[in-house]
Amino acid sequence: MRAWGNSQRHRTIAAIGLGVLLLTGCSATEPPKAKPWASAGPVWHSTYEAPAPTVIAPLTGETVQSDALDHPSIAAKIDNHPLARAQFGLNETDIVFEELVEGGMTRYVGVWHSTVPEILGPVRSIRPMDPDIISPLGGIVAYSGGQPGFVNMMQSAPVYNAIHGQADTATTFFRSPAKRAPHNVHVKAREVVAQHDDLKAPQQHFAFSLDIPSSTAAKDGTPTARVNLTFGSLGTPSWAWDAATGAWGRFMTGGATDTDNTGAQLTATNLVVLRVPVTVSADIPKTELIGSGEAWVSTGGATVHATWRKDSQTDTIKLVDDNGVTVRLAPGNSWVELVPTAGAVEFVAPAS
Question: Which domains are present in the chain?
Fold first, then answer.
């Protein structure tokens, strides 16, 4: 009985083992099959792309792609005679310098780099202070000519002189039939810049904050609703703060809204007012910009008192507040108002 019992037990164990093998579908030595979910479903790939490297635009303080401004700036002597208005391209400038000229009027040095308009102008003749304004920019200067001594001064500066009536500007400067000479010389700005793309981009001109609220004037300045300027008898522009747009809006002598050729009001993120001595030779005023003096910076509806300094023709203008701390402008465009010491500056507080 024990022999039968052992044999029967062995047969039973063998039968159970065979059942297990049949249930698992593999032998003891067969490798396990791959699990069906291991290769099932979609294959996911990342769509992340590293953002393009950025830099700070040297004339506006705005953040841009590093290769977006890999070209020279173009400065131009812009006419501000009533017969020259409305001008082309002034609302696309990075910086505008306003200066006193003959007859108590003003003219502009407009500077374009972040945006270069298709057409700018009308351009007029160069003046003796312009080499000091334009030299720190390098790049290109466009103008209609001028007295030989002034032209020689400009041509001695480290910039490319693009002058109306010369062979190299025959296809890029033109007279508009819409205006009367001499207030009708315009420039195909993009074509001029493309012809000289081997020139370097400008150096940084001012210190900048991250935004308007963190700018020096907005943080530490006195609330300001309006800025009234007197250059001369026919040069009395003003600026009014517009909180809705976050910019200063410009008004001409007499109070009319100052506009560009599109009909849009001229605006500025920053107003930089410098009190400057002016010398006169043969009835030609010259703003003396090598030196230092009193300044104000207006941003974000407020104004801070400052001191300006420029040590040489190729140096940029430096601004420090009354504590000796560098003034930081907000990112955006700036108008630099070169008001004679014999002129006047008035800052009007908001109505209470």
Answer: 54-195 (3.50.90.10), 207-348 (3.50.90.10)
